[in-house]
Amino acid sequence: MKKFSLFLVVLLIFGLTACGAKTTNESSKPVVYASFYPIYDLTAKIAGDKAEVKTIIPQNVGPHGWEPTTKDIAEISKSNLILYLGMGLDSWISKIKDSGTNAAFFEVSNGVEPIKSGNVVNPHIWLSPKSAQIIAKNIKDALQKTDAKNKDYYEKNYEALNGKLAELDKEYKNELSNTKQKTFIVFHSAFDYIARDYGLNEISLVGMSDEAEPSPARMSEVVNLIKKENIKYIFREEPGPTKPIEVISQETGAKILPLNTIGALTNEDIQKKADFISLMKENLDNLKKALE
Ligand SMILES: [Zn+2]
Question: Signal sequence span per UniProt (predicted)?
């Protein structure tokens, strides 16, 4: 009996030591926070196992209207590197900057030509493969500055990712250049950068935030446009409100297809292990179907 409890004590001590060693090991990696899903996914692909990458906004929560709690700010400010989009979408980042943190901050939209409506910049740059490539380059530069000893490792992962993004850009260009229809209808103007970069025309029911409600006047404008241009498909956003799109579908007979804003993952996305690039490919398939 005595022997047995001694054995237990030894096991316990050994267990604790092993645990302690693991924690030290993990904390030697830089901790990197990305403000929301698409930045998180691209960062995780470049960082591989050399950094601990986390997302500030939970993966299944969209970026519009989110604010960090005091607890979030305290936790995030302990990290080494914070990557945020900029363009007004994650402007709450200033609260973390003001917390007295030692973390480095990088705005990953640097270098993307913005689309403006009046003075307001449309922040949905990640949905165009062209700007996704600029975002990936900025993320790589930030990781290399923060963790110089793994510079070559990050470079290699970045090259692989950038190859896939360049391929995606080529597919968007090839598939969307010869479509019969050029106009596509969505709920909020999240797809402006696809429209600009690949020669399409996006019509949205509301502006840059999916938290707005479409006006009856806008609804009937869009209904008339669908009838006039004989548009066969309209898009419901994934994730996002579906009701106004259903109403328009019922009034016009236009069929509904999904188009993913990739600002967050849906439960279905998580289940099928989707990532940024696979969702971008699904978007291209659905755009092609709608515009043919
Ligand atoms: Zn949006």
Answer: 1-21
Give the residue among 53, 169, 59, 39 at the shortest CA–CA distance from 110: 39
- CB-based contact 61:264 (threshold 8 Å): yes
Question: Ligand 1 centre from 17 Cα, in Å?
Answer: 47
CA 187–ligand 1 middle distance (angstroms) = 10
Place of tokens 């229809």: 181
Class of domain 29-172: alpha beta
Spell out the domain ranges in the chain: 29-172, 174-291
Do the strands 81-84 and 31-34 form a parallel or antiparallel pair, or are they unpaired?
parallel
Measured CA to CA, the distance from residue 30 to residue 50 in angstroms comes to 8
For residue 47, which of 30, 35, 59 has the smallest C-alpha distance?
Answer: 30
Q: Which residues of the chain have pLDDT under 50?
A: 1-4, 7-25
Q: How far is the CA of 124 from the centre of ligand 1 (A)?
A: 6
Comparing 29-172 with 174-291, is the CATH topology the same?
A: yes
Class of domain 174-291: alpha beta
Residues 6+ apart with CB under 8 A from 87: 109, 114, 121, 122, 123, 125
